[in-house]
Design brief:
It is built from 6 helices and 7 strands. It is α/β, with parallel strands linked by helices. The protein has a single domain, classed as HUPs (Rossmann fold). The strands form 2 sheets. A 5-stranded parallel beta sheet has the order 5-4-1-6-7. Helix 1 crosses helix 6. Keywords: Signal. It holds the Pfam family DUF218. This is Membrane protein.
Length: 202
């Protein structure tokens, strides 16, 4: 009986992981662009104020959405690592300002060392401004977890992932990100916590 129970538990865990990975893959292929209060760009690495290639791809996609009239404001979010001069939010805001987005259409929220902290900080800013709806911009594989966290924080969230950048360059890279996100999503659903400090999946 014990072996059967163990086997059933392992099978159930594998099925859960497989179904989650499939859902991440499916949502990564969607692109929702409803008219919203703001476009929210989730932060990624920056180097002395210069966005990394992953972050730049997200920012360029957000600029495209802004130009299409999806929302009147782009919100950049993300704190900084020890020793950094700039936050991710500041680097993102400055990049967009230098590339044609009016300064009064930009809001930097310089908080958050992981996705969960970032979306909670954004939700607080939204509440202060009586905003509710957001289009989230991140990498495709990050979309499902980011959207779930944003909804749990009280936002009416949709996702419009970027299709450019290192996260989508090769199938091997895509598979690695899907596996990481599967683990991160299941951890969040089980514990309500994020995985700060884990490269690529915070």
């Amino acid at each position: 009986m014990g072996v059967r129970v163990l086997g059933a538990a392992v099978t159930a865990a594998l099925l859960l992981a497989a179904s989650t990975a499939t859902a991440i893959w499916w949502i990564a292929r969607q692109d929702a662009r409803p008219a919203s209060d703001a476009i929210v760009v989730l932060g990624s690495a920056q180097y002395n104020g210069v966005p990394s290639s992953i972050f730049e791809a997200r920012l360029e996609h957000a600029r495209e959405l802004y130009d299409e009239g999806v929302a009147p404001v782009i919100v950049t979010v993300g704190g900084k690592a020890t020793g950094d001069t700039f936050t991710e939010a500041e680097a993102g805001r400055d990049y967009l300002a230098q590339n044609g987005v009016p300064e009064d259409a930009l809001l930097a929220v310089p908080e958050g060392v992981d996705t969960l902290e970032s979306v909670r900080a954004v939700a607080a800013e939204f509440a202060d401004r009586d905003w509710n709806s957001a289009v989230l911009v991140s990498d495709p594989w990050h979309a499902m977890r980011a959207e779930r966290m944003a909804e749990d924080a009280g936002l009416d969230a949709a996702s419009s992932p970027t299709r450019q950048g290192p996260a989508v360059q090769t199938r091997t890279t895509q598979l690695r990100y899907i596996l990481r996100e599967t683990a991160a999503y299941l951890l969040y659903r089980a514990t309500g916590e994020s995985v700060a400090g884990a490269p690529g999946i915070g």
